[in-house]
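Structure ticket #2291
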Amino acid sequence: AAFAIPATFHGLGPLVAGAGNPSMVLLRAFLTVLALTSMVLSAVLSERDIAEANAGELEGRFRMVTETFAVPLVIIAYPEPEILYVNDLMAELVGRKREDVIGRPSLSFYKPPEDRETFIARIQRGGRVDKMELEIETASGPKLVEITSRVIKFDGKTAFLTAFYDLTERK
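Resolution: structure written out below.
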């Protein structure tokens, strides 16, 4: 490109020879369309890179907030009950490592399993559940908890962001 542009400017090279030649006109049109397409594509890819960087920054902030929040939190996909995220306090509440919980179905939390159906019905009615008591299964046995939950979008999926409050000792 460094040699071709000045050479073309000075009337040298295949693009300037025979200006009336129809094949040269087609070649010039093709190269013009190619140049414009590459500029548009470059702009689109640049915008995508910026959007991905911003998404990564937002995810980092989200994780920082949820890890410093003094409440066990879990994000569960819906309708498939896959656990997408837990903070350290939630992993501690259920007595498992985070990596052992994330990606698994949330059905093992509920004791009895019918509580999940009650929860789903309530959250579908209003998009949220406030102060619902239920029993969950943990590594150290069942615990009585109160949950508050909201419908959110997480990684492009519909999900429930749920905070747990351990009521076991209080009750």
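Closing remark: The chain has a mean pLDDT of 80.
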